[in-house]
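Sequence, please.
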C-alpha cells in the first residue's frame, strides 16, 4: 500500500462495500452487526444520499478500500446553523498511520465549508485512546464537555408508548 489516498463519494454502487466495511467496524468495536448482511445493505440503500439520510466517503489506496466516513447535517442551536455531524470514521488497521484518517477529516472540513455549514462535530468512545490522540492532533479541535445519551430498541418504544 504505497499510493496516494483517494476519496470518492459513495453511491448506490457502493452498498456492498459499505456493508462490508461497516460490518468490519462493528467487529472492531466487539459488536455484532445489527442485522443480516442483506438487511444491512437494504438499510444503507434506504438512507444513503437521501433526505433525510446520510452521505459517505470511501477512502482508497491503490484501488483498495481502506476506510470510510459517514456524515449528515445537523442543526446546531449554539448558532442556529447547520453543521456537519461525522457519525463514523473508520480506517482499516493496515492503513492506519498513512494519513487516511487525516485525509477523510480534511475532506469533512472542506465539505462543511463548501456547504456553508459552521461546524464539524463528532463523537469518540472514551476508551478509544488511539482515536482520541488522533483527533487531539487535528488543528483547532477541542473536546466539548458533553455526555452522549442514547435511547433505542425496547426502551425507546416503551418510552414513546408509556412516557
Amino acid at each position: 500500500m504505497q499510493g496516494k489516498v483517494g476519496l470518492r463519494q459513495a453511491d448506490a454502487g457502493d452498498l456492498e462495500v459499505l456493508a462490508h466495511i461497516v460490518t468490519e467496524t462493528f467487529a472492531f468495536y466487539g459488536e455484532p452487526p445489527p442485522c443480516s448482511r442483506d438487511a444491512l445493505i437494504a438499510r444503507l440503500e434506504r438512507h444513503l444520499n437521501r433526505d433525510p439520510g446520510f452521505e459517505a466517503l470511501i477512502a482508497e489506496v491503490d484501488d483498495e478500500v481502506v476506510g470510510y466516513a459517514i456524515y449528515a447535517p445537523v442543526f446546531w442551536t449554539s448558532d442556529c446553523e447547520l453543521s456537519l455531524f461525522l457519525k463514523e470514521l473508520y480506517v482499516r488497521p493496515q492503513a492506519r498511520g498513512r494519513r487516511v484518517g487525516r485525509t477523510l477529516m480534511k475532506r469533512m472540513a472542506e465539505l462543511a465549508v463548501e456547504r456553508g455549514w459552521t461546524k464539524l462535530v463528532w463523537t469518540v468512545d472514551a476508551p478509544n485512546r488511539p482515536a482520541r490522540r488522533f483527533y487531539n492532533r487535528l488543528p483547532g479541535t477541542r473536546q466539548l464537555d458533553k455526555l452522549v445519551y442514547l435511547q433505542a430498541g425496547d426502551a425507546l418504544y416503551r418510552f414513546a408508548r408509556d412516557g
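The two ends are 53 Å apart (CA to CA).
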